[in-house]
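Input record (one chain):
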Amino acid sequence: MDEFIKKIYFGNTMSDYITALVIFVVCILIISILRRFVTKALLNWSKKTGTQVDSMLVKLMQRLIIPFLYYGALYYSIKSLTLLPKISQVFDLISVVIITFILIKLIISTINYLLNAYFRRQEKGIEKHKQIKGITTLISILIWGLGVVFLLDNLGFKISAVVTGLGIGGIAVALAAQAVLKDFFSYFVIFFDRPFEIGDFITVGDKNGMVEQIGIKTTKLRALSGEQIIFANADLTDSRVHNFKRMQKRRIAFKICVTYQTSREQLEKIPAIIKKIIEEQQNVTFERGHFSSMGDSGLNFEFVYFVNSSDYLEYMNIQQAINLKIFDEFNKKGIAFSYPLQTVPVKKDNNDSLN
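The corresponding structure, as predicted from the sequence alone:
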């Protein structure tokens, strides 16, 4: 029995193999106990704080930290043995790859959680959560790229030539795709400056609609008539955008024209009549009303009031109610509305008079 234990197999005695196995089993038991203890502690913490940080930590522990600790136990137990140089190099190579992969996943998961938690706390968190998908994808690509470069450098590859080639290639791609890159950077301007957000009703030039999606290259609007309007992000950042969703109140100016046969007494009463009609409406603030001008077709009055809401439908309902009430009041008081009228003088010809 002693001869079997002391006999050397691949540079190690059987006693060494048994010791390595015991080290691995003990490490696994310690990790399992630690896992249960930490999970229980996080659950108790979540009950006290009510945050989602604990759930993120549990996921990171189960998906990344625990597998990393298991591999660490395997690495430590195997490293306690005497390994051939080539086997040791392969094992170290595998370890570097695994550690790099876990660190990249850990960094990406942490950044994604922090971004999601930040935007969920803000107003319209669900809509903003949809917008950050493009940014998180770009961040992931960037971190993976840096991680691969770091890995190649640690594996002994000369990455200076690769980096130089990528730099030259990047310049060539940037020159060939200026429009795409312009839209890409405009996306960041829209995301961070927030001139509009998903759900806002905006007007750009002669086009208007509700923002449905903000992508890396294009922004999609849904027009009132139902069709989808697609803008390049650069077009939006280079244009004057009217955001009606952020309008706190709507200023309304409208005109009324009455006939020249209207008496002076009636003209003096018209501003007071319409002021009373406007002030009877709910969620409305009257500003002014005046006999503004004498037009070609009649006598013009101008009135201004505010609807204390940005809802277009509410404004139209209020204006309709005002118009109907004005029509009724003018009919009661005998005030006639003017309509386009033009008088053309006709000169009678002398020849016609002789006939």
